[in-house]
């Protein structure tokens, strides 16, 4: 009799236990975050925080501290904002490192969707500099009507260099002439553009460069600077940021924070250990520059600062909106950056 009473109770308890295990398993599955993070990287000292985060395994470190276990990191290298944007839109990478204009164009294109793209954290403030070896070019005016002369930059129309050139043309020649120098531009990775300038035998007579290539252009081939993005923007500005989609951020909240924390640590590590940072860059990029030269570059705050706050970006948004390259005019820089950097003052 007692056995007859307890059998249904035991079955009920067993059933509840199995149900609990099933529900727990479903909840655990639903809460699972990615076990891999894929980054799109580019060339040059603009991307030093990426190299530090990767080489020192900071993403893996912060993911483990967040209770996410062993996370793997993959890095693919691209040249120019166009290729980077294609990679993130196609789902080929989770985070892209690129300039403000490519970010703004992606944000505008994806705004209000599950795949909306916004900035994650700022990596670098750096001047983009236009150099020439053409003795007939001294100012931007001298590009008008020039023959047999091409300006190399990472991506025509899309890259920060391309947009800065258009901004400079608008400032000098008027709004209807903003793109009047675009016919001179060609897409070319920095190493090839530098080599073309050094040879002197190609139509590439100007190179819109960043460090370390801007340093080499002056030191090795005595190229002359025409102007910089700081001239056009009216001061220093954020050069490169990390950005990602809303979908990935929402599906991986702990891992998203781990990435932010990793790049924050990378930025601080560069400031605290500039000599080691220079050596790390030389070794990871197989740079032809000496570690001493790289240290000289990254120690000059008029040239570069590794900062996580956002500065001088709205002027790019205003230009892109004014010229019809983006439809949505942001009311604040926070419109195209995630809350991960909203604690900072910025523009």
UniProtKB/TrEMBL annotation:
Entry keyword annotation includes Cell membrane: no
Signal peptide: 1-27
Keywords: Signal
Keyword Signal: yes
SUPFAM superfamilies per the UniProt record, alphabetical: Periplasmic binding protein-like II
A Pfam family that the UniProt record links to this protein: NMT1_2
Record-given protein name: NitT/TauT family transport system substrate-binding protein
Native organism: Microvirga guangxiensis
